[in-house]
Each structure stands twice: as structure tokens, then as C-alpha cells.
Amino acid sequence: MIVTTFVGLTVLLVGLLVGWPVLTALSAIFVVVQVLMIVARAAVERNDRRLSERLGGRRR
Fold first, then answer.
1. In a 10 Å sphere around its CB, with 0-12 CB exposed, 13-18 middle and 19+ buried, how is residue 27 labelled?
2. Is the sign of the CA dihedral 48, 54, 57, 59 positive or negative?
3. What is the pTM (predicted TM-score) of this model?
4. Largest Cα–Cα distance of the chain, in whole Å?
């Protein structure tokens, strides 16, 4: 997921350098969505860890 984000950033820079506004816009949207997915994934993993710790404490 992080690799595709870097690829999207590279395409965004290429679109800016070449002057293709459609490529730039689509790449910017793609990068924003990828970053949101990474943040959401981290939040879910953090929540899962906290929930498992809470459940582990109750079972003891």
C-alpha cells in the first residue's frame, strides 16, 4: 500500500513537470485516497490491539 502511494506521488510529480492537468488531478486524488486508507488501517489495528488488551484483562 505504501509502495502504490509512492508510485502515485511519482506520477503526480511527472504530471506537474509535463504539464498534464488530468494526470495531475487523478494522481492527487489517488494519493489522497491512499493516505486515507493507510490512516484508517492504522486506526483499525490500534483499536484491535486496545480491544484485545481489554478483553485479555477481563479474562484474567
1. buried
2. negative
3. 0.74
4. 62
**35 vs 2: CA distance, rounded Å:** 9
Question: CA–CA distance from 38 to each of 6, 8, 31, 32 (Å)?
Answer: 12, 14, 11, 10
Q: What is the 3-state secondary structure (H, E, C) of 20-55?
A: CHHHHHHHHHHHHHHHHHHHHHHHHHHHHHHHHHHH
Q: Are 7 and 31 in contact (CB under 8 A)?
A: no
Q: Would you give the DSSP letter of residue 19?
A: T
- Could you report the average pLDDT of every consecutive run of 10 residues in the chain (60 residues)? 84 90 90 94 96 82
Domain boundaries, the chain: 2-59
